[in-house]
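Suppose a colleague, Dr. K., hands you the sequence of a protein chain of 617 amino acids and asks what its three-dimensional shape might be. Before reaching for any lab equipment, you can write down a predicted structure in C-alpha cell form. Begin with the sequence itself:
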Amino acid sequence: MTAVHPPAWSARPLQTIVFDLDGVLIDSFAVMREAFAIAYREVVADCEPPFEEYLRHQGRYFPDIMRLMGLPLAMEAPFVSASHRLVHRVRVYPDVHRLLGQLRAAGVRTAIATGKSVARARTVLDAHGLLPLLDAVVGSDEVPRPKPMPDIVLEALRRLDAGPAGAVMVGDAVTDIRTGRSAGVATIGATWGEGDPTELAGERPDLLLDRPLDLLDLVDLRARGRGPRRTPGPAGRQEPHRARRRSTMSTTTNPGAQPDNWTGDRATAGDAGPRFSVVGPQGAGLELAGQSGPEAWATLTRTAELAQARGFHDLWLLDRTDTLPRREPEPVLEGWTALAALAGRIPRLGLGHLIPAAPLRQAALVAKRAAVLDIISGGRFRLGLSGDPALPEHESIGLAEPAGPGARAAGAAERRRAVGETIAALRELWTGRPTTLAGEWVHLDGAHCVPTPTAARLPVTVRLPAVGDLPDEVVAGVDAVQWTGEPGQLAAAITRFGEQRERLGLDPGAVRHAVALECRIFDSQIDRDRWFATPNLVVFWSHHPDLLARRNLYGTPTQVTERAGRYLDAGVEEFVLWFRDYPNPTSLARFATDVMPALTSRAPAGRTGLGLPLIAV
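The predicted structure, expressed as C-alpha cells, is then:
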C-alpha cells in the first residue's frame, strides 16, 4: 500500500467505493484483444489491429475510442457480439468475490463506473456472480459525457444516495484517476491488473494498492479512526498476492437438503410440500457458448453439486446433441453419459433424462440405457418422454418427424400416440422377457432388456403442453407429468387428466403434476424490464417478452414466489426449473434461499377426491 499524497478522505469514514470494471475487478484483456481483432478484421482490414493504441484509451466509451483512433463506428457491433460470445473466458481477479462480500457486510456502498455500455457491464458481472454483490452499475452510455469527465462517478454517487465526502474511485487507468478527481472524490490506483504502475503513479492518485483485499485494510483502519500507513514510494509496495479465487459454489447445505444417502421416494405423488428440480446447464440452449469441453463439464458438475447442497430433489438433462434456437458449433454435453458420470458425484439427487419418443429414439435402446443408468445410480433414475416434433439436429442425421395426414393438430395427436406406444414398449421390455410389438411407431421382434431396473416399476414422466387431449396409453402409463403453460391452462389440464384416470379406473392421486419453467431472479423490477428489453437475450432466443413472462418465473424473489404460488394453486406439486442466467449459478442459489422456503411453508392447494385442484386460476 503506497500513499502518493495525503488521501482526501483521511479524516472521514470510508463509506462509498466506485470501481472501474476492466483491470480492477475482472481481467478481460485477452477477450478484449480477441474481440477487437475480430471487429477490426471484419470492418477495416485483414491485418494486425492497433490494439495497443486502443488500450491507451482504456476506460473511455467504445464509440469515443473509435472516434479518437479514426476508426469506423461500425466496429462496435462485431466487437460487442464477440465480447458476449467470449464472456465466460473473462477472469475475475483473485479475492474479488471475498472483497465485495466483506464490503457489503461492513456497510460500504459499492458501484461500478465503466467505459462499457451498461448492458455489456451487467452481462459480464452477471456471468461471474458479481452483480448481486454490487449496489449500482453505471455504463458510459447512461451519462452525457464519458470519462474523464465527472458525470459517470457523480451518477454512481446519486444512485447510491451518497456524496463525494467519504467516497473513493478505484481504477487501473489514468482516465479513472482523472475522472475521480474531477468528481471531487479520493482516488486509488489499482496496480494488480494489466495497467502500467509507473504511468498510474505519475497521475498522482491518493493511494496505490497492489491487491484487492488491501481495500479491506482501509475500511478496518477507518473504523478505528486512523489513516492508512504511508510509505515513501513505489518501492514500498507489496508484491501482488495471487490468492486462489473462492468458488461461488457454496457447500453450505440448505436446512431442507436430503441426507447423505439418497432416500427420495420412487412414488411420484403424495409428498408434503412441493418438490424442486433443476434442468442442468449442458449447452443445448447455448448457455455454455465459448467454453471448452472440460470447462463445460466443470460447469455442469459444479451446478449439480450446488443444487444438491441447496436442497433440490432432482437433476434433469435433455437428450440433445446440438444447440437451439440456432445450430452452432458450441459444446453440448450428451445426457446419458453425463448422468452416468454424475451419479457418483451427486449421491443425494434423483437423476432424470428427457428424451424424444419413437421413432426419434429406438425403444429397446432407450430401455437398456435407462435400466443400466438406474442400476449405476442405485435406483435414482427417472425417464422422461417428450412428444415434441423433430428438431434440426434430428433432421441433420436423417431422422424425420413422424409423418401424419391433416393439419398441425393431427400431427400433435399422432406424436402423443407415439409417446403412449413408447411407454407400453418400455414397460414390457423392463420385465426382462422377450418382447414383440408391431405398432405404428415401435417395432420389436423378440427384443429383451437385461439387466432390468432396480425396481419393478421405473418411474416414467412425460413433458407436454397443457392443451389438447391425451391418449389413454399415456394417462395410464405415466408416473408424473411435466406440463408447460400458464397457471390457468395447467389447472384445466390437471382436471382433465384426473377425470380421464378416473374413467380408466385408476387413482388420479398416483400421478405427480409438475410444471417446467424458465427462471431468473432479479434485484428489481427495473432490472427485469431492462433485461426483457434486450432483443438478443429474449426476443431472438425465445418468445415475445409478454408471453415469456406469463409462462415462466422472471422477477424479484417476491414476484417469483407470487407467480409460483399460482402454479401451486393450479395443482402443481413440483417445479422443474431451467435457470436463464446459466452458467452463472446466482438465480439457482437465490431461488433456493429466497423462494423455496416460502413455497414449502405454503399449505398445499385443496384437493378433491379425484386428486384435482379446488382452485383453478
